[in-house]
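This part of the workshop introduces the protein records we will be handling. A record pairs a protein's sequence with a compact description of its fold. Backbone structure tokens are a discrete shorthand for how the chain folds in space. The question running through the whole workshop is how a given chain folds. The record below serves as our worked example for the rest of this section.
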Amino acid sequence: MARSISRTPTASQLPNFSFPHEIAFIAVISAAQLLTQAGLAQSIAPLHVIGDSFGTSNPGQLSWLPAGYSLTVGTFILPAGRWGDLVGHKRLFVVGYFWFAVWSLIAGFSVYARSLVFFAFCRAMQGIGAALLLPNGIAVLGRTYPPGPRKNMVLSLFGATAPGGFVLGAVFTGIFTQLVWWPWAYWVMGMVLALVGIAVIFVVPHMPVVGGRPSFAELDAIGTLVGIAGLILFNFAWNQGPAAGWDEVYVYVLLIVGVALLLAFFWFEWAWAEYPLVPMSSFTTDTRLVFACESMGWASFGIWTYYLW
């Protein structure tokens, strides 16, 4: 088994929360999942209205508005949990909320730049905030509650907010688009994220981190950089191919380089990493089946949502 890293003590007994405090605690943690999925819906529901603001109706170009967000959420989740283990899950959780808030506000103001590329970039930056929130929110719950029915319940509540978050984001973005102006959906999202981030500071208890400054080996910096680069190039090429055309040389070159980097990442994690970001020992037959089902489920979810909205 590969080495594991945990600088935050695991709970051995139920937290000493009052009932209102526990409700607030679960709410601010679960809001991470809810607002992450709401962020995805923000560019799908008013997609063509947003496109009109930037002077385009090209489906390939418009696909980057949800895809840019999804790309960074899926990519930066890979190292975000490790960073939380090393510097503190609560700290990264708060940073995630405020990062998400700032880029949501900028995304709304990007309408004045008249650049679809810049707006797609803002969407990608929003996704980094969501990527910091999700694994660290789960870690905060997991380290607050010891194994048992109560822990199972709070983790289930966290997961159950996902579909509701998407619907909430789509509905309110549609309302703002129809009655006010679509950037208001992003400005309000930013304000809500900032308020919840402030609440986290006071509601989530202090979670001490054991040990000193993380070492280079513990960060698995090489594996992280290679893995992130591979995922970004791989996903970029698959999304850009239908938009630019597969006859464009740079598209399939980026795809080939992305695949090569991903192969290098898995080789490095297996053969060289002292503290692997993705321990190869975790890929049992059961986990591979679960990952395959999840990947096909999420992929089909995005395709059906985008094209049938």
Remarks:
- The longest helix spans residues 149-179.
- The chain has a mean pLDDT of 88.
- DSSP finds twelve helices and no strands in the chain.
- The domain at 15-213 is CATH 1.20.1250.20 (Growth Hormone; Chain: A;).
